[in-house]
C-alpha cells in the first residue's frame, strides 16, 4: 500500500473518531439521571446538588462541555472520573491488561482453530470431516458467548475442579497460574469467532481450488503443503483477513459479557460501572478507546491486503 493511501486511511480514521466523539458525547448526556444527584446521595438538598453540578461543570451548555472535553483529548487528557477524581487515562490503563490479554488470546485461538479447521474442510469437500467442521461451525456461531462461558465453568470448574471459575491472575504470579485463569474466558470469547473463520476459510479455500492457476500448478507437479501454502491459502486469505478484522473489534465489545461471567475486573467492568453511575468522562473515554482500536484494526487489515496481494499496494 502506498504512503498516500495510508495517509488517506489515517485521515478517514481521524474523521471517524471525531464523529464518534460527537455522537458519544451527545448520547451520554441523554442517559436518564443526573450524576450530581448520584454523588450527592438520596438525602441531599437541591442546593447541594446544584453546587456539585457547578463544581463538575455540568451546568454549562453541552457544546461548551464538548469543546472543553475535546481540547483535553487532543492534549492526551480524557478528563477525570466524576466520582473518584481519578484520571480516566489512569483508570483505563489499570483496567486494560485483563481485557487485552483475554481478547488477544481469543484471537490467537480463533485463528489457530478456525483457519486450520476451515482449510481442512475446504480441501476435503463433501467428506465426513467437511460435514463435521461445517456442523460445528454452525453451532459455534449460534451459541451465545455467555452461555458457552457458563457451560465451560460448569464442566471445568464445578464438576471437575481443574480450572478457576472466577478472577484474573497477572503473569507475575506465575505462568501456570496466569494461564489457568485465561483459558476459560478466552475460549468462551474466541470460539464463536473461530467458527466464523472456519466457515469463511472453508468457502474461500473451496473457491480457490476451482481457479485455473491452481489447476495449472497441479499440472506442473505442485502438491502437498507447498501448493496449499503458496497458491491456496495466500489467495484465500484476503476475505478471511477481512472477517478477522471485523471480528477482532467485536471481541473487544464481547469481553464485557465474559468479564461479568468470570468476575474479572477489566475494561468491561469499568464501562458497566460508568454507565450505571452516569460517569460521563469514563464512558466517553472507553468508547473513544474502542473506536481507536477499530480504526487501527482497519488500517492493519488494509496493510495486510498489500502484503498478501502485491497488486493492492498500487491500488
Q: What tags apply to this protein structure?
A:
315 residues; 0% strand; 12 helices; mainly alpha
Characterize this entry briefly.
By secondary structure, the protein is mainly α. The protein has twelve helices and no strands. The protein has a domain at 95-235 and 248-267: MetI-like fold (Orthogonal Bundle).
Commentary on this structure:
- This protein has 315 residues and is mostly helical.
- It has a domain at 95-235 and 248-267: MetI-like fold, CATH 1.10.3720.10.
- It is 77% helix and 0% strand.
- The protein is built from twelve helices and no strands.
- α7 packs across α8, α8 packs across α10 and α11 (267-277) packs antiparallel against α12 (280-308).
- The mean pLDDT is 82.
Question: Whole-number radius of gyration?
Answer: 24 Å
Q: What is the CATH class name of the domain at 95-235 and 248-267? A: Mainly Alpha
Largest sheet: none
Order of helices and strands: HHHHHHHHHHHH
Q: How many H/I helices?
A: 12
Domain ABC transmembrane type-1: 96-305
Transmembrane segments: 12-31, 100-124, 136-158, 255-276, 288-308
GO molecular function, one term: dipeptide transmembrane transporter activity
Organism: Acrocarpospora phusangensis
Amino acid at each position: 500500500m502506498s504512503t498516500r493511501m495510508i495517509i488517506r486511511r489515517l485521515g478517514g480514521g481521524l474523521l471517524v473518531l471525531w464523529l464518534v466523539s460527537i455522537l458519544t458525547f451527545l448520547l451520554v448526556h441523554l442517559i436518564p439521571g443526573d450524576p450530581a444527584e448520584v454523588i450527592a446521595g438520596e438525602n441531599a438538598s437541591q442546593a447541594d446538588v446544584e453546587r456539585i453540578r457547578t463544581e463538575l461543570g455540568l451546568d454549562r451548555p453541552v457544546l461548551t462541555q464538548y469543546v472543553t472535553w475535546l481540547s483535553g483529548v487532543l492534549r492526551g487528557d480524557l478528563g477525570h472520573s466524576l466520582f473518584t477524581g481519578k484520571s480516566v487515562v489512569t483508570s483505563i490503563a489499570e483496567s486494560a491488561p485483563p481485557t487485552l490479554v483475554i481478547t488477544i488470546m481469543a484471537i490467537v485461538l480463533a485463528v489457530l482453530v478456525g483457519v486450520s479447521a476451515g482449510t481442512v474442510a475446504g480441501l476435503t469437500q463433501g467428506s465426513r470431516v467437511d460435514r463435521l467442521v461445517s456442523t460445528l461451525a454452525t453451532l459455534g456461531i449460534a451459541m451465545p458467548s455467555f452461555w458457552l462461558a457458563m457451560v465451560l465453568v460448569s464442566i471445568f470448574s464445578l464438576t471437575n475442579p481443574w480450572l478457576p471459575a472466577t478472577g484474573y491472575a497477572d503473569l507475575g504470579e506465575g505462568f501456570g497460574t496466569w494461564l489457568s485463569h485465561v483459558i476459560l474466558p478466552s475460549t468462551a470469547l474466541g470460539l464463536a469467532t473461530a467458527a466464523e473463520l472456519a466457515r469463511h476459510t472453508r468457502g474461500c479455500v473451496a473457491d480457490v481450488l476451482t481457479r485455473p492457476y491452481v489447476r495449472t500448478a497441479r499440472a506442473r507437479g505442485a502438491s502437498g503443503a507447498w501448493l496449499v501454502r503458496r497458491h491456496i491459502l495466500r489467495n484465500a486469505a484476503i476475505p478471511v483477513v477481512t472477517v478477522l478484522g471485523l471480528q477482532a473489534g467485536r471481541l473487544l465489545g464481547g469481553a464485557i459479557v465474559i468479564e461479568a461471567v468470570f468476575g474479572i475486573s477489566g475494561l468491561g467492568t469499568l464501562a458497566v460501572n460508568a454507565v450505571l453511575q452516569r460517569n460521563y468522562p469514563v464512558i466517553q473515554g472507553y468508547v473513544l478507546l474502542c473506536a481507536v482500536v477499530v480504526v487501527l484494526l482497519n488500517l492493519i487489515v488494509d496493510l495486510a491486503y498489500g502484503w498478501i496481494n502485491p497488486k493492492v499496494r498500487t491500488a
